[in-house]
């Protein structure tokens, strides 16, 4: 019953309903811990794509250029750069463009 504190109506008062609510909430929590990883990766990719397009490259060409330039920055860090420090992101884009040109 303690774990159902804050649930609405009979879901925190009635034993059978509490058990059902806890099973259901546990399933959602398990599922969504995995979904969260997908959701954040999508967000990072969207941010990188928008910032790289502002600098004249599509996302796929930008990532290919980074791989050719042997720049090993993960998507989360690239997203943070694009969002918080556009000047640094421009330098990374320049490195990717140079590698693509070569």
Tell me about this structure.
This protein is mostly helical. The protein has one domain: Ribosomal protein L20, C-terminal domain (c-terminal domain of poly(a) binding protein, Orthogonal Bundle). It contains four helices and no strands. It has helices spanning 15-54, 59-68, 75-84, 86-101.
Dominant shape: rod-shaped
Query: What gyration radius follows from the Cα positions, in whole Å?
Result: 22 Å
State the helix count.
Answer: 4
For this structure, what is the CATH class?
Mainly Alpha
Uncertain residue ranges = none
Helix/strand-derived class? mainly alpha
* Major sheet summary line: none
- On the 0 to 100 scale, the average pLDDT is 96
Element pattern in H and E: HHHH
Query: What is the distance, rounded to the nearest whole angstrom, between the alpha carbons of the first and last residues?
Result: 65 Å
Give the amount of beta strand, in percent: under 5%
Count of individual beta strands: 0
Percent of residues in helices comes to over 70%
Instruction: Give the CATH topology.
Output: c-terminal domain of poly(a) binding protein
Identify the CATH homologous superfamily.
Answer: Ribosomal protein L20, C-terminal domain
CATH architecture: Orthogonal Bundle
Give a topology summary.
Elements: H1 15-54, H2 59-68, H3 75-84, H4 86-101
Helix pairs in contact: 1-3, 2-4, 3-4
Concise structural overview:
The chain has 102 residues and is mainly α.
């Amino acid at each position: 019953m303690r774990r159902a504190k804050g649930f609405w109506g009979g879901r925190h008062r009635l034993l059978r309903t509490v058990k059902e609510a806890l099973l259901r909430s546990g399933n959602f929590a398990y599922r969504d811990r995995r979904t969260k990883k997908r959701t954040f990766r999508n967000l990072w990719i969207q941010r990188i794509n928008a910032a790289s397009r502002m600098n004249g490259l599509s996302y796929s060409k930008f990532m290919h250029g980074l791989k050719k330039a042997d720049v090993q920055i993960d998507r989360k860090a690239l997203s943070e750069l694009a969002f918080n420090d556009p000047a640094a992101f421009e330098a990374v884009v320049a490195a990717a463009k140079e590698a693509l040109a070569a």
